[in-house]
Recover the amino acids of this structure.
């Protein structure tokens, strides 16, 4: 089975500096698993987390996280969401960071930090917009 990431990057393609149009490509489970694993490993290292400390935070044993990072296993959707939420980004963006790294060798931590800043700014704008309506 292959999937596409249609319309996912609206507004984020500039932040991520993606060279490929990922919305027109199809990815299989193996590619997605590799992308997830590389993003997980890079962000865990970026946050200076051991496998054990990350595992304690997301309630997944460290050996399982290690297998995800090395592409041996693919997480369940529940586990993948837990991990992505721990790093404060949507699961789709988590995977796309890995795909962009695998295809274009992007710096995952650098793109991640840019995304976090963008998400914080968007959240702030939403709060301000809601407050001004009252």
């Amino acid at each position: 089975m292959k999937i596409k990431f249609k319309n996912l990057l609206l507004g984020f393609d500039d932040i991520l500096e993606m060279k490929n149009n990922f919305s027109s490509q199809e990815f299989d489970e193996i590619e997605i698993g590799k992308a997830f694993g590389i993003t997980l490993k890079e962000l865990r290292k970026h946050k200076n987390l051991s496998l054990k400390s990350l595992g304690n935070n997301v309630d997944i044993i460290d050996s399982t996280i290690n297998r995800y990072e090395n592409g041996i296993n693919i997480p369940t959707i529940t586990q993948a969401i837990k991990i992505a939420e721990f790093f404060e980004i949507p699961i789709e963006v988590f995977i796309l960071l890995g795909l962009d790294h695998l295809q274009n060798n992007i710096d995952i931590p650098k793109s991640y930090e840019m995304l976090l800043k963008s998400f914080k700014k968007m959240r702030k704008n939403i709060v301000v917009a809601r407050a001004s309506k009252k």
The CA atoms of residues 35 and 99 lie 5 Å apart. The longest strand covers residues 2-3. The chain has a mean pLDDT of 85.
